[in-house]
Design brief:
The protein is an alpha+beta fold and about 130 residues long. It has 5 helices and 5 strands. Strands 1, 2, 3, 4 and 5 form a 5-stranded antiparallel β-sheet that branches.
Length: about 130
């Protein structure tokens, strides 16, 4: 498990830890949720990093590459315990958690102009 955890990137570690914490408290969300509607207003080669930060707020993580390019990532996770989880005995068999996670990464050239946008969404269900 330790080998697997150390091979996962920092942003993903943060998301996994947030999900684990949410599972323990029943229902919670963490991070910054970015929608396709929000990113559809950005124009490759024109929109600047400052404009993105102004529109979306502080990212979950930022990376500066040795060639001067940058990327910013917004990660969001939401977990909800199924109601059956809280029913004695029944929860053992029918309980669990439904988790949704998303990540949006925006890359910028050395002049801070948008190069591209990538997004990822996942849905994970756990059963007891």
């Amino acid at each position: 498990m330790r080998r697997l955890f150390t091979s996962i990137g920092g942003t993903m570690k943060l998301a996994i830890l947030a999900i684990a914490a949410m599972v323990l408290i029943g229902c919670a969300s963490s991070g910054v949720r970015v929608t396709e509607d929000q990113t559809s207003t950005f124009v490759k080669g024109e929109t600047t990093r400052s404009q993105v930060l102004q529109a979306l707020g502080d990212p979950t993580s930022q990376t500066k590459m040795s060639d001067g390019t940058r990327s910013i990532t917004y990660t969001y996770a939401k977990a909800r315990a199924r109601p059956a989880t809280f029913i004695p005995i029944v929860g053992i068999f029918a309980g669990g958690t439904d988790t949704q996670a998303s990540s949006v990464t925006l890359r910028f050239d050395a002049n801070d102009k948008l190069i591209d946008i990538t997004s990822m969404e996942s849905a994970i269900s756990t059963h007891h």
